[in-house]
Amino acid sequence: MWHCAAHRRSSCCASLGRRCPAPLPPRLQLLLLFFGFIETERPSDWVLRRLGLATGQPVDAIDYRAPPALMAATVAVFVASGLGLAWTLQAALGDATWSVSTGG
């Protein structure tokens, strides 16, 4: 599947006359991951952990699962940040194309 996606991307770039960067080789990806140059924690996991620590949850427990209230709060944080970013760009750019692409 990765090969097909990379092939489609390179074909598309070639047809447009552009150079697209090639994906990193798997061994290089593993090496970068080992040395900590590739981030492995998602932003939502970071927010969930911080909210869990703030509310006194045992976030270091192996079988820990965030309560539904913390999950909802995390979703709200990212929805609010996305809406804020879209509003800021809309106000700053004022372009109809930007408005259509964000659904506004």
Q: Give the helix tally.
A: 5
Name the assembly state: single chain
The shape is flat
Strand share of the residues? under 5%
* Count of DSSP strands: 0
Largest sheet: none
Cα-to-Cα separation, first versus last residue: 34 Å
Unreliable segments of 5+ consecutive residues: 1-10
Mean pLDDT: 75
Percent range of helical residues: 55-70%
Order of helices and strands: HHHHH
Classify the secondary structure makeup into a structural class. mainly alpha
The rounded Rg comes to: 20 Å
- How many separate structural domains? 2
Walk me through the structure.
The protein has helices spanning 2-16, 26-34, 43-54, 68-93, 96-102. It is an all-alpha fold.
What are the key terms here?
single chain, 104 residues, 2 domains, 5 helices
Fold blueprint:
Elements (H helix, E strand, L loop, with lengths): L1 H15 L9 H9 L8 H12 L13 H26 L2 H7 L2
Helix pairs in contact: 3-4
Question: What's the short version?
Answer:
This protein has 104 residues and is mainly α.
